[in-house]
Each structure stands twice: as C-alpha cells, then as structure tokens.
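Title: Comparing notes on inverse folding

I've been comparing how different people in this forum approach sequence design from structure. To keep things fair, I'm posting one structure and asking everyone to reply with a full sequence. Here's the target:
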C-alpha cells in the first residue's frame, strides 16, 4: 500500500530545509527577465525623453505585431517597468520562501504567455523565460503526485492508470 500523496503545502523548502532547485532556477529566471528586459526598457525611457527622441524614431528600430504598441512606445516602456518590478518582487519572494512570491510569479508568467503574441518579436524571449519559469514552478509544486481520483499501477512510473479501471 502506498502513502496517500499530500496536498501542496505553504512551504517551498525541500526535506533538507533548502529552497528546491527548481524554485531557485525559476526565481532567478524571472528576476533576470524583470531586471534586464523589463526594468531596462523602463530606465531607458527618461534618457530618451531628455534627448528629445520621438517615439516614431524608436519605432523604426523596434517593431511589434500591433501598430498601437508601435505608436505608443513610451507607454509600453512604462508598462514594462511595472511588469519588471512585479517579476523581481515575485522572484525575491520565492527566494525568501514566501507563497505570495510564488503566486505573483505564476500570475506574471501566465499573463506574459497570454500577451506574448501581441509583443512579437520580443514576446518570443518573454515566452521562453516565463514559460520555462512557469513549468519549473508547476513541476516543483506538484512533484510526482498522480492526478486525483486515479489509482497508479506499481512500477509504471506514476503515470499509468491501474488495470481494471
């Protein structure tokens, strides 16, 4: 008889009292994404404004799938800063073993995956980083537990349903 899988707890630590490796990698992925891609774009905006660079000039260098984003790059840069701060906060929350960090990070990853199609071509990098972090979080959170309501055949690696079901 196998032990019944326990529901996920509030603690992100492994049995040794350390934050799981998958959580750490996911946290650093979103921190890097937030700091470099998102906050970096936001910090470039004041410089561009002081240099009196027109949005249309920037639009010639960076192309997006939607014309609205192309025409409002300064607003996009502000939004990018908000996304970046939320990503960094979520990643730091995970590294500090806080459930709120996990929730913020998972939400930011899902929002990014939904919106990345509108941000092409930059959305591809966002999708890779956010998608990778989200998969690591879900795999670490769920572990090897089978789907609820299904018996697991012994020796089948945990995924195949038991015979007779």
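Reply #1:
Here's my take.
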């Amino acid at each position: 008889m196998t032990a019944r899988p326990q529901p996920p707890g509030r603690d992100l630590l492994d049995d040794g009292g350390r934050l799981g490796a998958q959580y750490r990698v996911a946290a650093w992925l979103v921190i890097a994404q937030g700091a470099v891609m998102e906050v970096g774009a936001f910090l470039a905006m004041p410089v561009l404004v002081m240099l009196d660079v027109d949005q249309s000039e920037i639009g010639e260098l960076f192309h997006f799938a939607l014309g609205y984003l192309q025409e409002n790059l300064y607003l996009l840069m502000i939004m990018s800063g908000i996304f970046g701060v939320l990503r960094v906060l979520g990643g730091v929350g995970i590294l500090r073993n806080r459930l709120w960090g996990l929730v913020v990070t998972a939400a930011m990853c899902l929002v990014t995956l939904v919106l990345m199609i509108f941000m092409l071509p930059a959305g591809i990098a966002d999708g890779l980083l956010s998608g990778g972090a989200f998969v690591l979080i879900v795999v670490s959170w769920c572990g090897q537990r089978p789907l609820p309501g299904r018996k697991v055949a012994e020796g089948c690696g945990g995924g195949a349903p038991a015979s007779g079901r």
